[in-house]
């Protein structure tokens, strides 16, 4: 297995110092999630290891100790903590495609596929999750948020609004990988209408943005999908940027959504 240090060198050497495309936060964010590298919590699906490098656009150097947070739907298209899904086709360019959907009320005490961890001195963090499922209006994607000068709580969570949010984005997948994964269990049990990459406005906007690609570079961890996949991506951010979190749902002090 290649070490995360060597992976970080590979990612950094092959990347260009161009800002990553921003994306909307979406309606399923939860503030103050747990600090952890593995967010799986026993969720079924194709294992996915993400190696994420964060680069300062002003220096083209790695950024140490910025917290990279991720959240995503599970194999059947459900976000932890939420039972109601908005779904539907995202707004077109002429309809205000950057409009942030309203937050949904939390309904369950769940934390699966949510959390984050800080980058190393090489600007890299490794996070373990599962390949996300689709739901109406959205293709496979993973949300991400990058926090600088963040604070750790005594209960193992971080305070989402304690520092500065440098980036709000989404990671996407090549359709060939989506096809392979979605032909396996438990993804075949997803009853949502599948949205493909070319039907997802958020992906189209991210790819049209004048910045780095938001598509993960995926490699198979073994000969079979059950052995998992590894995804690589470089996120170039502006350390002077500052974005606001719009969702007002929080993880409570007992590590459950409330």
From TrEMBL:
<dbReference type="InterPro" id="IPR015889">
    <property type="entry name" value="Intradiol_dOase_core"/>
</dbReference>
<dbReference type="Pfam" id="PF00775">
    <property type="entry name" value="Dioxygenase_C"/>
</dbReference>
<dbReference type="InterPro" id="IPR000627">
    <property type="entry name" value="Intradiol_dOase_C"/>
</dbReference>
<keyword id="KW-0732">Signal</keyword>
<feature type="region of interest" description="Disordered">
    <location>
        <begin position="90"/>
        <end position="117"/>
    </location>
</feature>
<dbReference type="GO" id="GO:0008199">
    <property type="term" value="F:ferric iron binding"/>
</dbReference>
<feature type="region of interest" description="Disordered">
    <location>
        <begin position="191"/>
        <end position="210"/>
    </location>
</feature>
<dbReference type="GO" id="GO:0016702">
    <property type="term" value="F:oxidoreductase activity, acting on single donors with incorporation of molecular oxygen, incorporation of two atoms of oxygen"/>
</dbReference>
<keyword id="KW-0560">Oxidoreductase</keyword>
<feature type="signal peptide">
    <location>
        <begin position="1"/>
        <end position="20"/>
    </location>
</feature>
<feature type="domain" description="Intradiol ring-cleavage dioxygenases">
    <location>
        <begin position="25"/>
        <end position="147"/>
    </location>
</feature>
<keyword id="KW-0223">Dioxygenase</keyword>
<feature type="compositionally biased region" description="Polar residues">
    <location>
        <begin position="101"/>
        <end position="110"/>
    </location>
</feature>
<protein>
    <submittedName>
        <fullName>Intradiol ring-cleavage dioxygenase</fullName>
    </submittedName>
</protein>
């Amino acid at each position: 297995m290649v070490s995360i240090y060597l992976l970080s060198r590979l990612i950094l050497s092959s990347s260009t110092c161009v800002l990553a495309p921003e994306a909307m936060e979406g309606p399923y964010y939860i503030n103050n999630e747990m600090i952890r590298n593995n967010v799986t919590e026993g969720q079924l699906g194709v294992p996915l290891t993400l190696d994420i490098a964060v680069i300062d656009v002003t220096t083209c150097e790695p950024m140490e100790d910025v917290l990279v947070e991720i959240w995503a739907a599970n194999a059947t298209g459900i976000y932890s903590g939420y039972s109601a899904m908005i779904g539907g086709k995202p707004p077109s360019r002429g309809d205000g495609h950057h409009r942030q959907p309203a937050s949904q009320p939390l309904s369950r005490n769940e934390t699966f596929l949510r959390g984050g961890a800080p980058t190393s001195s090489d600007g890299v963090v490794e996070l373990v999750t599962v390949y996300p499922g689709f739901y109406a209006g959205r293709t496979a994607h993973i949300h991400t948020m990058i926090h600088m000068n963040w604070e750790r709580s005594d209960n193992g969570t971080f305070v989402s609004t304690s520092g500065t949010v440098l980036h709000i984005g989404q990671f996407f997948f090549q359709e060939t990988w989506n096809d392979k994964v979605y032909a396996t269990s438990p993804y075949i049990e997803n009853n949502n209408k599948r949205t493909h990459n070319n039907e997802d406005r958020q992906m189209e906007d991210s790819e049209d943005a004048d910045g780095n690609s938001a598509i993960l570079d995926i490699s198979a961890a073994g000969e079979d999908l059950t052995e998992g996949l590894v995804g690589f991506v470089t996120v170039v951010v502006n350390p002077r940027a500052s974005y606001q979190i719009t969702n007002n749902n929080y993880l409570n002090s007992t590590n459950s959504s409330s």
